[in-house]
Amino acid sequence: MEKNNNRVFVSYSHKDRSYANILVDLLKKDGFNTWYDVENLNLGQDLHRQITEGLKSSDYYVLLVSENSQESNWIKFERQIAENHLNKSKLNAIDLVRKELSSYIFDIDNRHDEKLMNVINKFIEKL
């Protein structure tokens, strides 16, 4: 698979980790770099700083939306950083209940990375 230099920050509730694992695997198989807490966080260091740096160094933000994520203060923090540092067309939310790219969180009309959209569609098909 051709390597892609674009980095995708995956945001999810830990209660939804099995879904995040599937998405991260699909992204990697398609050549994307990922920022995924399980692989990138060092628990001995400042978590807020690491997450902020991870988001600032990412090209895309993908939020897995569920009832669990709605209650997470970490996701609220990550989303705020993403909205402040990434172009709006780079923000994506996948609704795990509706099994679709969510238009009620981020505008989905201006998606430019066809390769990322293909991976997201593959993920949704697996839900």
Spans of at least 5 consecutive residues whose pLDDT stays below 50 are none
Q: Using the coordinates above, name the CATH class.
A: Alpha Beta
Number of domains: 1
Q: By helix and strand content, what is the structural category?
A: alpha/beta
Q: How large is the share of residues in beta strands?
A: 15-25%
Radius of gyration: 13 Å
Q: How would you name the oligomeric state of the polypeptide chains in this document?
A: single chain
What is the share of helical residues?
Answer: 40-55%
Terminal-residue CA separation: 24 Å
Domain TIR: 4-127
Pfam families: TIR_2
Protein name: TIR domain-containing protein
GO biological process, one term: signal transduction
Task: Walk me through the structure.
This protein is of the alpha/beta class and 127 residues long. It has a single domain (7-126), classed as Rossmann fold, CATH 3.40.50.10140. Helices cover 45% and strands 17% of the residues. The protein is built from six helices and five strands, in the order E-H-E-H-H-E-H-H-E-E-H. It has helices at 17-29, 37-40, 47-56, 67-70, 73-85, 114-126, and strands at residues 7-11, 33-35, 60-65, 91-95, 100-101. A five-stranded mixed sheet has the order 2-1-3-4-5, with helices on both faces. A hairpin with a 4-residue loop joins strand 4 (91-95) and strand 5 (100-101).
